[in-house]
Amino acid sequence: MTLKFFDKLSRNFIELLSDKDDYNVIIIIKNEKSFTAHSNVLKCRSPYFRKELKNIIPNENNIKTITIPNISKKIFDVILEYIYGGIVDLENVETKFIFDLMMTASEFEIEELTKKLENLLIETKSSWLKSHFSLVYRSIFSGNNFSDLEKFCNDIVVKYPNLIFDAQDFTSLQESALISLLKRDDLQLKEVIIWEYVIKWGIAQNSTLPVDFNEWTKENFITLKTTLQQCMPLIRYFHISNADFWSKVEPYKKIFDKQLWKDLNQHLIVPDQPVKSKILPPRSILIQELPTRTTGQAKHSTTRTTEQAKYSTTDLEKFCNDIVVKYPNLIFDAQDFTSLQESALISLLKRDDLQLKEVIIWEYVIKWGIAQNSTLPVDFNEWTKENFITLKTTLQQCMPLIRYFHISNADFWSKVEPYKKIFDKQLWKDLNQHLIVPDQPVKSKILPPRSILIQELPTRTTGQAKHSTTRTTEQAKYSTTPTTEQAKHSTSHTTEQVKHSTRSTEQTEFSTIITQEHVAEISSWIDRKSSPYSLYVPYKFVLILRGSVNGFEPQTFWDTCHGHSGTVVVMKVKGTDEILGGYNPLIWDANAVNIPGYGGCWEKTNDSFIFSLKNGNIQNSILSRVKIRDYAIFNAYKNYQIHYGPHFGHNLCMYSSSSNFTFDDNMCSNYDGHYEKHIRTTSGEFSIVDYEVFKVIITG
């Protein structure tokens, strides 16, 4: 029989920690606070302290001093109490504190505490882990101490790989994290896409590799091969199609071992013949329709299989909905919006912070409801009483969640009134009363208005264009942390500043060059949609500058547009029906540095584009996206701003040696190079009649 007295032992050791007489170790935290301890206890409980104390020479009083710079005093106090008494008090502490405590315990090689906290987070704080996914994922691969958390995170990533692979900082991912994902048989990406990501990551680890692939030397390929030596054996090459292999893999044949390359070529030609190299099994793709990859960004709308549905949780739904309510077009403008499950739609309609006007929400709900009933007549005028009953039945769970009393009279009459037959009599009576005498009480329940928080265009990071803006304090609470590139180009223009910057044009008409149809088309290009917006355009174009009002001097452009991001420039070509223009997601910077030989500096982005719009005799619009991101946008140095206007690579430039864009010597050039294709059938210089610059604002 064994008697255990751990409680008393724990209390005695904690008392020893408080004893200031017999200590022989001083631990200094952040050069601010010092803790006293006993070397034998520290060495016994922590391999880290055993190694540290072994290498420290004591002073004349036989006391050893350890300095630890990167840890909070509060966390170290908890660590010491655990070392001495085996007790950790987590009452009334935030989850972030528990996470930081776990990371610190790992650094001190306290395996028992590390594992306990790891399991605690997974079992009781999974919601926090998901909502702070990037922080968690990039922290836990610093060592090999968090196998359970790694699996927890990777179980999410393999199902939603764009969380990591399409992240702005993907190339800074630790090699161990990338390898752990490549090992997974259930990683939900086509193998050729995985290969492209691995190559992208490998190249990013070596800044000396030439940007132009045609300039690569034998040594460059060896460098890449060395970098990827742990990753390459994990690619399932034998399950890449012939076409993809030839276009995506073959250019890098010099980084393959000879035998593997020989076997791969043999497999392409005679796939049934055995090879010497090991053939890894194909990955088990559970997602039938993978998100479309567009310039490193992901669309969030996917068709899920039954297998995926098993993994959905309340916490994950909230995590996703927290994103969707701020950027509703990710779901509501998706091609497969009408296939959205009713429960998902209801969960969004319940949110007070859904960032859409109520009448727009109503239109989407009607669109969804009609799509669920293929027998409803296409011609609304042919609808019968039974058709309205069918729609009413379909929407019986959704309709109570619409905030009808917060729809304007005009919108209500044009958008809601046609569907009055699907409303209950009392609600319809109350709505009509509210339209006529809004101050009178009604019997129906009035839901509160939704809180529209975001006024300016947010950074859209999933299959949509980036718009770098600095938000007001209220907006910043709801925005995501900007990427390095975005932060570099952030501006200090709030919505109020936009109003002031347009004071000379705010009383004029929307545009003398483009129509609302053009706005819808350009907006769809910004969001990389395959077809123009029709039901709802998520952006408003706010006029900043018009040449015929503000003047055609190039300097006027820089004085007016400096600091504005997310802008569209349009120009009417003299003597033709041509309307040309470009979109710049970055800021126009009138304070640009002067790079010798350039007269300014180039800015990088994957999301700018130039275009020609259909107009008059021009039947079709032309879109040309940036091809060489390093030369996407040019900001002229101040000494050259009297001649240079906006430049989109060398493909669309505004320049005037006479400082007037309408003079005959004006050079709005259309050269080839930095963008995908020509936007004019003729090349060379041309003059303009007028030009306008708009700031793109989200409509909410």
UniProtKB/TrEMBL annotation:
<feature type="domain" description="TLDc">
    <location>
        <begin position="512"/>
        <end position="697"/>
    </location>
</feature>
<dbReference type="InterPro" id="IPR000210">
    <property type="entry name" value="BTB/POZ_dom"/>
</dbReference>
<feature type="compositionally biased region" description="Polar residues">
    <location>
        <begin position="458"/>
        <end position="485"/>
    </location>
</feature>
<dbReference type="Pfam" id="PF07707">
    <property type="entry name" value="BACK"/>
</dbReference>
<dbReference type="InterPro" id="IPR011333">
    <property type="entry name" value="SKP1/BTB/POZ_sf"/>
</dbReference>
<dbReference type="Pfam" id="PF00651">
    <property type="entry name" value="BTB"/>
</dbReference>
<dbReference type="Pfam" id="PF07534">
    <property type="entry name" value="TLD"/>
</dbReference>
<dbReference type="InterPro" id="IPR006571">
    <property type="entry name" value="TLDc_dom"/>
</dbReference>
<dbReference type="InterPro" id="IPR011705">
    <property type="entry name" value="BACK"/>
</dbReference>
<protein>
    <recommendedName>
        <fullName>BTB domain-containing protein</fullName>
    </recommendedName>
</protein>
<feature type="domain" description="BTB">
    <location>
        <begin position="23"/>
        <end position="92"/>
    </location>
</feature>
<feature type="region of interest" description="Disordered">
    <location>
        <begin position="458"/>
        <end position="509"/>
    </location>
</feature>
